[in-house]
Amino acid sequence: MSDIFESQAAGPSAEARSNAAEYTVSEISNALKRTVEDTFGHVRVRGEISGYRGPHSSGHAYFSLKDDRAKIDAVVWKMTMARLKFRPEEGMEVIATGRLTTYPGKSNYQIVIDNLEPAGAGALMALLEERKRRLAAEGLFDKARKRPLPYMPTVIGVVTSPTGAVIRDIIHRIKDRFPLHVIVWPVRVQGETSGAEVAAAVAGFNAIAAGGPIPRPDVLIVARGGGSLEDLWGFNDEALARTVAASAIPIISAVGHETDWTLIDHAADVRAPTPTGAAEFAVPVKAELEATVANLSARLKACMSRGFERQRTALRAATRALPSPDQLLALPRRRFDEATSRLGRALTVSTERKRARLTAVRLTPATLSRRLAEAKKSAARDLLRAQAALRALVRERRGKFDRTKVRLSAEPLARRQAIARDRLTEFARRGDHAVSLLLERSRTKLDHSERLLATLQLSDQSILDRGYALVIDAGGKLIKRAAEVSQGAELTLKFADGTAQATGGALRLRSARLASKPRDPGSQGSLF
Hints:
Elements: H1 2-10, H2 12-17, H3 25-39, E1 43-50, E2 61-66, E3 71-76, H4 78-83, E4 93-103, E5 108-118, H5 122-137, E6 155-160, H6 165-177, E7 181-186, H7 194-207, E8 219-224, H8 238-245, E9 251-255, H9 263-267, E10 270-271, H10 275-282, H11 286-321, H12 325-360, H13 365-407, H14 410-456, H15 460-465, E11 470-472, E12 490-494, E13 499-503
Parallel strand pairs: 3-5, 6-7, 6-8, 8-9, 9-10
Antiparallel strand pairs: 1-2, 1-4, 2-3, 4-5, 11-12, 12-13
Helix pairs in contact: 6-10, 7-8
């Protein structure tokens, strides 16, 4: 730079005498580009994503990688973006693999990323992806094998830690929406044994027999709060994923937050974004169901009312379309009048004809005898027919009576009475058994409460019953320290069943610090 300034000050003559080569801006930029790319052809850079706004309209993604002291521009081309195994997000710490280059248009340098992985989780992510591909190839994640959740479950099983906030959130949400029976299987949700414990809990719930003393859940919830990939690694266990996929009970996975995905989320029948969301998936809202039923009832009543009204309107329209009684009777009335007028003339004509016939016919005793004989024969035939018809009617009525008598016998009534008596006896036996079972459960609960009360009692008699003794001096004062015992002092030792006298001797004080045994976090009691 000093040479350049000196040449400018010296004028054209000094410029002519200079031996320094001249470069264009493009030449300098290309030379820097080649130098950077040759020196840093392949690098791995760890940093935090900054300025990420998603892929550009062209499909490329532009952002920066930064730490507490520096920042470098980064670009992910469209083809590389499609191959990434996860979606970059603002503030995510990642390890970028690529090559450094320069951008002559702005005189800055940048890294062209070929691969991107979460910082510190590269090996775990690769292992997780390998397991996911293998299990998916076996069909464990297929949507066809996933079972629908029951709409109205009666018992819900929850596999989670009994001391965390997750179980309280789930129980509180279920209580608000639709209170029902919840069974909790306590497990560790973090650590090396968490996957095996969760798998054993899922298998244990499936092993519960229907109708047993412990109700079989209709749906299972496997839940845990959010955390890092390492914290949630127990739920990426292959054996756990296979156990969840083979479960006969529908399973809702609620592990981590909405952005956390594990193998159990793919193997479960339903994946919930949060434990509270799992409770919402498991049970409907009772108030909404009641409102829906009320709404459907109101709609049914309205539909019935509208249907009746439409039928009533149609009936009225049909009534208006029918002719009046006068119109209906007009033609028959006219015919009747015409027939009446013709009947008078026809009677007169018929009377004249009958009179003429009678006048022409001569009534003799032989004619009367013949007609009388014909009438007798006709009456005899009619009598025979009437007797045959009467006998047939009697036979038919007798057969019908016999059939009715069989149906009205007392045997069916006796059989029904016997069945009803057996049912009543069975109900009485079941009622006695239920009362006995209820009394036995109450007696067991009372015995347990008595034992718990005896265990929690802090009186001196309960302490003496466990093998301890009280030391009392001659004045009746309780001695609590060995230093309070003097040589030759008269002492009284109080035991559970009586007292004994003793004399104080030479005592050597010795203090012992008992270290409390750490409590096994796995020895959590079941909350059945």
